[in-house]
Structures
1.
Amino acid sequence: MTEQQRRILVVDDEQTVRDFLQRVLETAGYTVITASSGEEALGKMSQFDIGLVLLDIIMPGLDGFEVLDYMRQYVNIPVIMLSGIHEATTKVDTLTLGADDYITKPFSVEELLARIQVKLKRAGPTS
C-alpha cells in the first residue's frame, strides 16, 4: 500500500467522531487528516494526496452531498459515507452521486476497517 493510500481524510462536524476515527485509523496504521466542514475538506484535498475519504452527510455549510458532487468532478478516490441517516433513499442517492460505500452510525470498527481495506485494494496504487 502506498503512502498516499494510507492517508485518509475524515470529514465530520462532530469533534468526538473525528477524534474517535483518528485514534482507530492511526492505530490501524493509517495517516489521518481531519476536517470539520465541507469547505475545510476541499481545502485539505488540494493540500494533500488523499487515498480515501470518510465523509459525513449532515454538516453546516457544504454538506456531504455537495462535497461528494464536487469531488467527483475533479478526483477519483474512494469515498465512504458515514452517516446516522438510515433511510434507503439517502443511501441510494449517495451511491448514485458517486460514493463507493455507505456505513450507518453507529458502526463496527472491524467492519469499517475491512471496508477501507477493500476500497483501497480495489483502487490500486495511485502514486
2.
Amino acid sequence: ILQDFIANVYRSKTGNLLSVELSDLIWSITVAIFGIGGMIGGIGGGAIADWCGRKCGLLLNNAIAILGATLMSSSQLFRSIECLILGRFFIGLNCGINTALVPMYLSEIAPMTLRGALGTVSQLGVVIGLVLSQILGLPVILGTKEGWPFLLGVAFIPAVLQLLLLPMCPESPRYLLISKGRVTEARFALQRLRCSTEVEDDIEEMRTEDRAQQQDANLTMWQIIRSKQLQTPLIIAIVMQLSQQLSGINAILYYSTSMFVDAGISEETAKIFTIGVGAIMLIMTLVSIPLMDRAGRRTLHLYGLGGMFIMSIFLTISLLVRFIYHGMAYVSVVSALGFVVFFAVGPGSIPWMITAELFSQGPRPAAVSIATLVNWSTGFVVGLGYPTMLRVFENYSFLPFTAFLAIFWTFTYHKVPETKNRTFEEISALFRRDEHTPQYVENTTQIPPHKSFQSFDSAFDEKTLESCKHLLVYRFRRFCDQFFLFHFEETFCFERNLIVFATDL
C-alpha cells in the first residue's frame, strides 16, 4: 500500500511513472531510515541520561515520538514522500533513545530481588506494540489505502500516555544520589518506590557503590572502550546484544508470512499464523517475568539459545523436504512458533537487562549507549541482508543463524556470570577480581520471601565480600548495631542466615 502511495505521489508531482529501480531505492530508504534513527538515538541515549536524568530524558523523548507520528500520518494529506521518510526517522530516533533509557531506569528503581521481573517489562511493552500493530494492520481494520495514515499515527497514543503518567513516577534514586549527590531527593524517591520510610539500607548500599566506582565516574563511550577494567563486561554486553539480533528472530518476524507461504500454506492462513507468532511471544514474555528472578538471567538465556538452535534445525529440515512430505508445512509453523517461545524466554529481554546490570552507576549510561548502537546496527544489517541471503541460500537461509546460536550458547555458558540476587557493586566486583572474564559462580543466596523489597541487605555473597573489604566492614557494622534488635518470627540457620536476618531488620 505504501509503495503504491509513493508511486502515485511521484507521478502526480513529476508527471512521469516511477521506474522499478527508483521505486526500490525510495522504498529501501523508507525502510532503512528507521534503523538509522535508532542507531543515532542509541548513541545519544546515554548522554541524555547523564544530562537530565532517566525520567526527564524519557519525557523529552515523547516530543520526538509525537513529531514523528504527526509527520507520518500527515504524509497522505500533504502528498509528501519526504514527510513519510522524515517521520520514520524521528520514530526510529525515539525508539533508539527508549531502548537505552528504559532498561537503565527500570534496573535502577527496582529492588534487587525484583530487578529481573521489572527489567522484562520493557520487552513486554515492545511485544504488546508488535502484536497490536499486526492486528491493526489487518485489511479489515486499518491496513487499507484509506486507513494506513491512522495506523501510522497510532504511535502518537503511547507518547501522550507517557507524558501524562510518567510525571507521577520518581526519578531514579541512584541517579540522584550517585550521579548528582542529592541525598534528600534520593531518599524521598526511594520511600515512594518502596512504600516505606525504612530505606537507609538502600541509601548505604548506593553510597558503597559510589565509593567503589569513583575512578569510573562519568566515563565517555571512548573511555569505556579503552578501559581494561571495563573491557570484560563491555564484551559480554556486546555479545549479548549480538545474540539477540543474530539469532534469526527478525527473519521470523519480518518474513514469517512469506516463509509460511513457501512452506505450502495459503496466504490467508499464513497471515493468521503470523499474528499467532506475535501472540505466542506476548504470552511467553509474560511467563518469563516471574522466572527471571527465580531461574536467573544466565540460565534462561542458555535455555532460550539452546531451544532456538534446535528449532532452527527443524525449520531448515521442514523447508528442505516440504515437497516430499506434505505435512512438513505445519512442522515449519510449529518450529517457527517454538523459535519465538524460546526467544521470549531468553534473548528477548535478557540482553537489555543484563547490560544495565553489568556496570556501576558511572559508566552505565555510556556502556548502554554502546550496546544499544551494536543492537540497532546489527538489526539494520540483518534486515537489509536477509532478503539477499534468502535468494542465495534459499532453503538453507537459516543455517547461518543456527551457527551463530551455537556460538552464543557456548559464550554464555563459559563467560557470562549470573547476576540475579546481586547488588550492582557485587556484580562489578566480579570483574575486579582479575583481568580475565569471570567464570560462572552459582549464587546460592536464599532470600526470605517476606523480605523481597530489601535491595542490598537481603543478599549475602561471601566470595564477593572477600573481594570488597569495605562491604565486609559495612556488614559487620550493621550486624553489631542491630544484633539485639532482631525478632524471632522465623527460625534461620545459625551463622550466615543470622547475619542476613539481623541486617534485614
